[in-house]
Design brief:
The structure is a homodimer of 416-residue chains. Chain A is α+β, with helices and mostly antiparallel strands and 416 residues long. In chain A, 31% of the residues lie in helices and 26% in strands. Chain A contains 13 helices and 20 strands.
C-alpha cells in the first residue's frame, strides 16, 4: 500500500469487486480509462465482466467466503457493488490479511484494505442496525424498533397505523417491506415475511423522495460529516417500489432544503467507517422536515445521472478515487453538475425479450439523451438499462423525456 | 439488413472493426452502453479488446485480406479506425459479399456493408488522390502535384520554396513528410522518402491549425455538403508533428471563421462516399482564407474532447449511429458542446515506463479533468493517453491545464 511503500504508484493498486451487476459494470467503465485494474467476483459473463477484459476475473458468488478470499489474494483493496455480502469474511481479511503462497512455495500474510469498512457494510445491511446507528449519530430518521412476532400490536398502539413491517436483511426494491394498515393486517404481514428478522417502522408521510450521493474520503467516522463531499440533492420517483425516475436537481425544492438535504446526507455518511461513495435516500416530509430513509454503501441508481451531468467526475470515478485515497477536494464540498437539468429513466424488462426495442430506438433518436444498456437478459420488471437526458432547463428535459416515459408506461401495462 | 428485413432491429447489427487501437477502444466504450456489438480485428490484447469481452475477437492484422474476410463473415457492417487498410478486399466484400458456410455445410453469399465506402478510404489513404479529389469537388486545399524524381526542381521553380515533399501513402504524425527549403534539399528529401510514391505540395503559410469533426449520414456523395453534421471548429496545436493540444472552441477565431470552417469541412466530407465520422484538418492561412489540409475517414484525435464536452453524443457514438443508419438530426446541423470551454492534452510516453505517473497523478487531482489511459505499453513519444479539461471559460480551462502542459513539456525534455 502506498503508505507503506512510497514507490508504489497509487493507481497501480488493484481493486477487487464483490458483485458484477450494472453498478460494477459502470464502475469498470470508469476504471478502464483511469488505468485502474479491477478484478470482479460474480457469475460468468456478468455485466461488469463484459466490459473488462484487462485481466482474468473470478467466477463464483460474492457471498462465498472462499471465493472472497481468492479474490483478496489477487488485489490490494476490496470493495462492493452490493451490500448483501459476507461481512465476517471481510472483517477477517481486513483485520488479519489473507494468506498467499509465493512462487517459491513459501506462505505469507498479505494485507488487503476493505473499503468501505466491513463495519459500515454490516451496519447497513441490517436495516434496523442502520436506523439505530443513525439515531445514535444524531441523524433524523424514521422511528424504528426491532420486533418479535408478539410485539407488533404494541408498536401499532404506540406509534399508530399504518406502519411498515420490514425484513432487517436482504431487502431491496421494496421486497421485504409490508405496510400494516390496521391490526387486522398483522397476521398477513407476519406470514409474508416469515422466517426473517423483522423491525417495525413508523409511517413516513413524505411529499417527496430525495437522494444525495456522498463521497467519504477519510477512514474515521465523524459526527459532523467531516471528510465528505456531496453531489446535488435529486428527486427520485418510485413505481412498484422500484426507482423509476431521477430529476436533477430536485424540482420545486428551495435552495435551503437543497442545502439541508446535502448536509443531512453528509452527516449520515460521515458517521460511518471507511471510504467510498454512498447513496443516501431521504424523505422530505409533509411538515417540511428531512429524514434519512436508508443508505447504500456503494454507487446507487440515483447517481447514474452523474455519468453525463458530471462528465469529469461521475459517482463511479468518485468511488474509485476515494477508496484509492486520492479523491481531490471540491469547493464547498460539492461536486457540481455541468448540465442545468438532468433526468434519468430506468428501463425495466418488458413482457417479451424485445419489448424494450421501441424505447431504445427512441432514446437513440434524441441528441440530448444517453442510453445505457447493461447487457443483462431482459426479464419482466428487471432493471436492464437506463436513459439520461441532459438539457438547458428542466421543462426542456421534461419535454424530451415525456415520450420515453410514455413508452415505459406502455411496457409496464403490457407486463401486468 | 434492416431495409431487407424490417423485423431485424437496427441495433442488433454487429459491427466489424479493422484496428483496435485507442480510437477503436473509445468506439467500444461508446458501443457497450448502447448495446451495439463490435468484433475487433487486431493484435491480441489491443486496447479495444481490453474493454470489450462481449464476444470473441479476431487476432491478426487489419491489412491481412484473409483475416478481413474472416471478420466480414461474422458481422453486418465493416468499419475502420485506421485508413491504412486493404481497400481491395473491402471493395470485394462490399461489391460481392463474402462466402459463409451454414451449419448444414451449405455455402451462401452474405452481404456486408462497408462504412465509410472503400472508395472513400482508397481516395483518402493516397494523400495525392485525396487532394486531387478535393480540388475536383471545389474544396480549397493546398496546390499539389504527383511528382517523379526528376520533377522536383520544376515544381520548386513554379510554386516556390520552401515546399513539402510527401509520401502519398502510409503517412501519419508527420512521418513521410519532408520540407524542401531550397534546390539543395532535393537530394536529401528524395533519399529520406526513397522507394515511396511521392507528391509535392505548395507551402502553406498558416496562422492556426483547425479541425472539425463531421458526421456523414447518407451514402451518396454531394457537392454541397448535404447529409452532414459538424461538431464545432477546434484549434489544434502540434509539436514534433504530433497533435499536442486541442482547444474547443478554437481561440481568437471570429464567429464567421468558425462557421466557414464548419461549412468547408462539411463540404469536403459531403464529397465522399458512405457514412461515418470524419476528422477534417484545416489551415487558417495568414491571409484569412481556410483550406483543407487532410481528412481522416474515422474518429480522430481532435475529437476526443467530445466524450466529456458532448456527453450524450461523442464522436464515437456518432460513428456508431451514422454507420448503423440511425443518426438523428441536429438543429442547424451542429452538435453543440455542453461545456463552455474544453482543452485536450495528449499524453505521450516518456523516457521510462513510469515517466507519465506524475501527469496521471496530477490529472486525477483536478475536479474538471477527465483522464483516458489507453492500456498501451508506454514507449517514448507514443500516444498512451489524453486528458480533457472542461471549464466555464477558456481562461479557467487554460489555468487548470497549465501545470499539466508543464509536466508534459518536462517529459518531452527528458525524452530528447
Amino acid at each position: 500500500m502506498s503508505s507503506q511503500n512510497p514507490g508504489f504508484f497509487t493507481m497501480d493498486r488493484t481493486i477487487g469487486l464483490l458483485g458484477g451487476g450494472q453498478l460494477g459494470q459502470m464502475l469498470c467503465e470508469a476504471a478502464n480509462p483511469l488505468g485502474v485494474k479491477i478484478v470482479v467476483l460474480d457469475a460468468e459473463n456478468s455485466p461488469a465482466k463484459q466490459v473488462n477484459a484487462k485481466n482474468a476475473h473470478i467466477d463464483g458468488s460474492f457471498i462465498d467466503a472462499e471465493k472472497i478470499r481468492e479474490l483478496a489474494r489477487q488485489v490490494d483493496i476490496l470493495t462492493v457493488e452490493i451490500e448483501h455480502v459476507d461481512t465476517y469474511v471481510l472483517e477477517e481479511i481486513a483485520e488479519k490479511g489473507v494468506e498467499v503462497t509465493d512462487k517459491d512455495g513459501s506462505k505469507r500474510i498479505k494485507r488487503v484494505e476493505v473499503q468501505p469498512s466491513w463495519r459500515t457494510i454490516r451496519t447497513i445491511q441490517d436495516k434496523y442496525l442502520q436506523k439505530d446507528h443513525l439515531v445514535r449519530s444524531g441523524v433524523h430518521t424514521a422511528i424504528s424498533r426491532a420486533v418479535e412476532t408478539g410485539e407488533l400490536a404494541q408498536f401499532g398502539r404506540e406509534l399508530g397505523y399504518p406502519f411498515m413491517l420490514k425484513a432487517r436483511k436482504d431487502a431491496y426494491d421494496g421486497r421485504g417491506n409490508y405496510p400494516v394498515k390496521s391490526p387486522a393486517d398483522i397476521e398477513d404481514a407476519l406470514k409474508a415475511l416469515k422466517g426473517r428478522d423483522l423491525y417495525a417502522e413508523k409511517w413516513a408521510n413524505f411529499r417527496m423522495e430525495i437522494a444525495v450521493m456522498v463521497v467519504k474520503t477519510e477512514d474515521a467516522a465523524s459526527d459532523i460529516g467531516k471528510g465528505t463531499i456531496a453531489y446535488p440533492a435529486v428527486e427520485t420517483v418510485h413505481e412498484d417500489s422500484v426507482c423509476k425516475l431521477v430529476y436533477v436537481p430536485a424540482r420545486t425544492v428551495s435552495d435551503k432544503v437543497q442545502q439541508e438535504a446535502q448536509d443531512l446526507a453528509r452527516k449520515a455518511v460521515g458517521s460511518l467507517w471507511g471510504k467510498g461513495v454512498f447513496g443516501v435516500e431521504l424523505f422530505l416530509m409533509d411538515d417540511g422536515r428531512l429524514i434519512v430513509n436508508e443508505i447504500a454503501p456503494r454507487p446507487h441508481n440515483s447517481g447514474h445521472y452523474t455519468i453525463e451531468a458530471c462528465p469529469t467526475f461521475s459517482q463511479y470515478k468518485s468511488q474509485l478515487l476515494s477508496i484509492l485515497g486520492i479523491m481531490p477536494s471540491f469547493p464547498n464540498s460539492v461536486i457540481p453538475t455541468m448540465s442545468s437539468a438532468t433526468i434519468m429513466l430506468n428501463i425495466l424488462g418488458g413482457q417479451s425479450k424485445t419489448s424494450h426495442n421501441e424505447i431504445v430506438k427512441r432514446a437513440t433518436s434524441i441528441p440530448m439523451a444517453a442510453l445505457h444498456m447493461y447487457g443483462k437478459e431482459p426479464k419482466p420488471g428487471r432493471k436492464i438499462g437506463h436513459i439520461t437526458i441532459v438539457a438547458p432547463s428542466m421543462p426542456y428535459a421534461e419535454a424530451l423525456m415525456a415520450p420515453l416515459i410514455k413508452l415505459s408506461d406502455a411496457m409496464r401495462a403490457e407486463r401486468k
